[in-house]
Amino acid sequence: MSTPAPAPTTAVSNPSVDPLTPNLSDAAIMRASATPNLPEPTQQMEKVAKLIDISKCIGCKACQSACAEWNETSPEIGICDGTYTNPPDLSSEMYTLMKFSEWENPDSGNLEWLIRKDGCMHCEDPGCLKACPAPGAIVQYTNGIVDFVSDKCIGCGYCISGCPFDIPRMSPTRNVVSKCTLCSDRVAVGQGPACAKACPTQAIVFGTKDDMMAHAETRVDDLKSRGYDRAGIYDPQGVGGTHVFYVLQHADKPELYSDLPADPKISEVVEGWKGPAKAVGLAAIGLAAVGTVLHSIFGKPNTVSAEDQSEAEELVDAELGAEGQQREEV
Amino acid sequence: MNIDLSRRSFIKLAGAGVVASSLGSLGFGEAEAQELAHIKPFRLTTLTETRNTCPYCSVACGIIMYSEGDARNGQAELIHIEGDVDHPTNRGTLCPKGAALKDFVRSESRLTEPKIRRPGSDAFEPISWDEALDRIARALKDDRDENLVQFNEDGVPVNRLTTTGVLAASATTNETAWATFKVIKAMGIAGFDNQARV
């Protein structure tokens, strides 16, 4: 038996090449898509989180580069659309993307360059998982990581409409959906995500959610002392908090950061379809089945009265007789 | 479309459907969901680690190269590169170029030997180090003998050689950088830069 992997507490660490027993297993799964009778997870792990401090980001894209290298994706060589955002959007080959937006601050008159690292937020209440109809294709671990299992993905794309942040992308060639895994394979052996390790300004840091929250608070205090009165933490409660969260200079206006939703929620269509509609549908099926059984017990076969019978016989005879005459004529 | 389906067989089929979906919702669909966790196996396990320095710029970040196979007989294949946390310069971090180093190493157009584009040719061809260094020395000497500017218009000695340019490596030690600078400047060469600024 190999040594158990250490708990993931930081991204500032060199991975071991020794075989380690991964610390993410079936026992650590707290939710799985379309699996209502999932056994209670026996392995409770400390919640992890990745904090992205937008005020420290220099927009170098080392995270994007490290992400593509670690996940062995090869984003298409794109074109320049007039901004530094490249490729223009997340794709099945680009799990994280620096989105550059320029904003003229009406209070100070300054032009501010707001650079947001877009990617999966790893919601505590994941809309993708709720929407997914394929058993076990999306799982959530007790440490907060929401992971896609491509082998079980049926390529329906429901997770895309279920995501409040518009993150998952369908691969046009493999027909399965993919997104950031928070480097679950690295976290499983006690490492942090590749993007957080590469970040040269420590704008991306990784650790336990408690540690990251404490760090985020010190960052907000620092920003406030530098005149960013509205600095704050973006950890939206509409989806139960997220395991990738931001420190924003302008936390009162998250839309400034390339349309970061102010109050993200799982679409009502998904909530309705997977909640009440499911119960109503099952009830309808049940009622129909009960009705069928009752009908087969109490329902009588159609009876024919003696008059109807004789009338019908006469009709038939008349018809046959007529036909017989016609035939003779021919 | 014309389906030949009697009333009786339609009811049979419908009944079978109800039974199947009821069994499904009673929990017999579990077989599908076995082995839920599907974490990718860690792909650096059992690879060989080699410490090195990023070749891009003079910051000289420490990197760890992960390779498979035996490098001693030239059979190693580079699998991954990432920053070295133990290195005092970068403490594990890298820039976007450094983070994508693996592709630089494995690039098909990577320069692995000296090459020369001969006068009138439109293609580079391989040349041995000895021949390359001899040719460079010869060309440098000839050019310097011909074009060295010893005095400017006012008769002030300047010893300036403006017709040769030198591009040096960036990932070198301070000592190598010092020696390189002294040699190049002693020859009076003005056009001198390093690869990090290209």
UniProtKB/TrEMBL annotation, chain A:
Any Pfam family matching the protein: Fer4_11
Residue ranges occupied by any 4Fe-4S ferredoxin-type domain in the UniProt entry: 48-78, 111-143, 144-173
Gene Ontology cellular-component terms listed: plasma membrane
Residues the record lists as binding [4Fe-4S] cluster 4: 132, 153, 156, 159
Keywords assigned: 4Fe-4S, Cell membrane, Electron transport, Iron, Iron-sulfur, Membrane, Metal-binding, Repeat, Transmembrane, Transport
A GO molecular-function descriptor: 4 iron, 4 sulfur cluster binding
Amino acids binding [4Fe-4S] cluster 2: 67, 180, 183, 195
Residues that coordinate or bind [4Fe-4S] cluster 1: 57, 60, 63, 199
Locations listed in the record: Cell membrane
PROSITE patterns: 4FE4S_FER_1 (PS00198), 4FE4S_FER_2 (PS51379)
Primary localization: membrane
Record's cofactor remark: Binds 4 [4Fe-4S] clusters per subunit.
Alphabetized InterPro entries for the sequence: 4Fe4S_Fe-S-bd, 4Fe4S_Fe_S_CS, FDH_Electron_Transfer_Unit, Formate_DH_bsu_Proteobacteria, Formate_DH_C_sf, Formate_DH_Fe-S_su, Formate_DH_TM
Region annotation Disordered: where it falls in the sequence: 304-330
Single Gene Ontology BP annotation: formate oxidation
Cofactor: [4Fe-4S] cluster
Amino-acid positions noted as binding [4Fe-4S] cluster 3 in the UniProt annotation, renumbered to this chain: 120, 123, 128, 163
Protein's recorded name: Formate dehydrogenase iron-sulfur subunit
From TrEMBL, chain B:
Subcellular location: Cell envelope
Organism: Paracoccus isoporae
Pfam families (UniProt xref): Molybdop_Fe4S4 (PF04879), Molybdopterin (PF00384)
Lineage: Bacteria, Pseudomonadati, Pseudomonadota, Alphaproteobacteria, Rhodobacterales
GO biological process: one example: anaerobic respiration
PANTHER family attached to this UniProt entry: FORMATE DEHYDROGENASE-O MAJOR SUBUNIT, TUNGSTEN-CONTAINING FORMYLMETHANOFURAN DEHYDROGENASE 2 SUBUNIT B
Protein name in the entry: Formate dehydrogenase major subunit
Domain (4Fe-4S Mo/W bis-MGD-type) ranges: 47-109
Chief place of localization: other
Family, as annotated: Belongs to the prokaryotic molybdopterin-containing oxidoreductase family.
SMART domains in UniProt: Molybdop_Fe4S4
Entry-linked SUPFAM superfamilies: Formate dehydrogenase/DMSO reductase, domains 1-3
GO MF, any single term: oxidoreductase activity
Protein keywords: 4Fe-4S, Iron, Iron-sulfur, Metal-binding, Molybdenum, Oxidoreductase
Cellular component terms (Gene Ontology): cell envelope
Keyword Hydrolase: no
Xref: NCBIfam families: TAT_signal_seq
PROSITE patterns attached to this UniProt entry: 4FE4S_MOW_BIS_MGD, MOLYBDOPTERIN_PROK_1, TAT
InterPro entries linked to this entry: Mopterin_OxRdtase, Mopterin_OxRdtase_4Fe-4S_dom, MopterinOxRdtase_cofactor_BS, TAT_signal, TAT_signal_bac_arc
Cofactor(s) for this UniProt protein: [4Fe-4S] cluster; Mo-bis(molybdopterin guanine dinucleotide)
